[in-house]
Amino acid sequence: MTDFAATRRAFHLPKGVTYLDGNSLGPMPVAARDRVARMMGDEWSEMLITGWNKAGWYVQPRKVGDRIARLIGAGAGEVVMGDTLSIKVFQALSAALALRPGRRVILSDSGNFPSDLYVAEGLARAVGAELRVVAPEEVEAAIADDLAVLMLTEVDYRTGRRHDMAALTAKAHGAGALALWDLAHSAGAVDVDLTGADADFAVGCTYKYLNGGPGAPAFIWTHPRHADAAQPILQGWMGHDAPFAFDLGYRPAAGVERMRVGTPPVIALTALDAALDVWDGVSLSDLRARSIELSEAFIAGVEAQCPDVALNSPRDPGRRGSQVSFRHPQGYAVMQALIAAGVIGDFRAPDVLRFGFAPLYNDLGDVDRAVETLARILRDETWNDEKFHQKAAVT
To answer: N6-(pyridoxal phosphate)lysine: which positions carry it (predicted)?
Structure first.
């Protein structure tokens, strides 16, 4: 049984704040500050460039990748870290397209994160492929025999709607296509099983539920059956078979190592490694059960006390990730008033109030405080103050 009281104590949670935005940026693990300070004091400052070997900086992407593998249903040596999520989407998608020569259709949905669609659109234009975008509920019916790659984010960033990874992957395979999954809102939030679902490629970020910090590096997974055949368009120095031979021609490294691109962000990986310590001993089935408990309690409380908002997430918890959203015509102002009152969620255009539930540090007390505060703001129309309508650059 996972001790969620102990995992909560592992985070710095500012006094007086109820934090329900871990689906956008996780809070700081207490250990991260000291770990990064030690790295900078004992490694960077004293070892200088010898730290790549002495401190193991060069192999960080593999070692940290192995720690994430357990959380997404992957095996050792199958996940590698580095770069941004958009870069990893580009690599995985270009490699998947190349594995299906003669097919040029990429299928995604309108619930996908726009950045993924931007990457797919640009790649499709460059290689003469076609990007088809349908509504989330129309994906299964849109899988046809001309499909090359099904590219989906498992959990919708606005509604929390969760795709059936195993069923849609099987449908794509039945049509002769490959399946690429973005786990940005899944890893560390739900019980992901890439191997069990027989997916082909997966990518994800680590600054949300994995709590790696702002700008933390992304990860990429390649199914072992594709690992030595995948040929991403973006071929980087660190993905070469022998980077320090300085060959002018590219020769891909074995397995997922070829998905490395640039120099590893050592400081960021150090913070992420510290954040992953919190996961030692955490059961993913316990995590999922706790997530459902929290989100169900929140929905029940809001619907009982806040008649001015409408549920924007699936009611069935089995079809939902670890986030809940409600709609309100003045969603932005309502969220700013909530934040000012110490309850931090976020807003997504055009009218969505979004709340993430991270079982490692959220509890039922957070749910009660959030419900009570939202009810008071709506009842008193506190949100109607002019200052709450002034939009900031980041919403």
So the answer is: 208
Cis status, amide bond into 350, omega within 30 of 0: yes
CA geometry: angle 210, 272, 277, nearest 5 deg? 75
Please report the pLDDT score of residue 395 as a whole number: 83
Average pLDDT over residues 287-310: 98
Q: At a CB cut-off of 8 Å and minimum separation 6, what does 71 contact? A: 187, 188, 192, 210, 279, 284
Task: Say what the pTM is.
Answer: 0.97
Domain's final residue, options 279, 304, 323:
279
C-alpha to C-alpha distance for 387 and 384, rounded to whole angstroms: 8
Q: Which domain CATH number covers 357?
A: 3.90.1150.10
Same structural domain for residues 245 and 291?
Answer: no
pLDDT digits (tens, 9 = 90+) for 58-90: 999 999 999 999 999 999 999 999 999 999 999
Q: How far apart are CA 149 and CA 177, in angstroms?
A: 5
Is the same domain home to 295 and 273?
no
Instruction: Establish if 142 belongs to a structural domain.
Output: yes
Query: Is 157 among the annotated ligand-binding positions?
Result: no
113 classed as catalytic: yes
Residue 8: active-site member: no
Q: How many domains does the chain have?
A: 2
Shared domain for 107 and 179, answered yes or no, is yes
Q: Is 40 within a domain?
A: no
Segments forming the whole domain that contains residue 128 = 58-279
Q: State which of 279, 303, 328 marks the end of a domain.
A: 279
207 has binding-site annotation: yes
Catalytic residue among 35, 88, 103, 208: 208
Q: What is the pLDDT of residues 198-236, one digit of tens each?
A: 999 999 999 999 999 999 999 999 999 999 999 999 999
- Give residue 173's pLDDT: 98
Question: Taking 90 as the threshold, does the pLDDT of residue 10 lie above it?
Answer: yes
Within 13 Å, how many C-alpha atoms sit on residue 321's CB side? Answer: 31
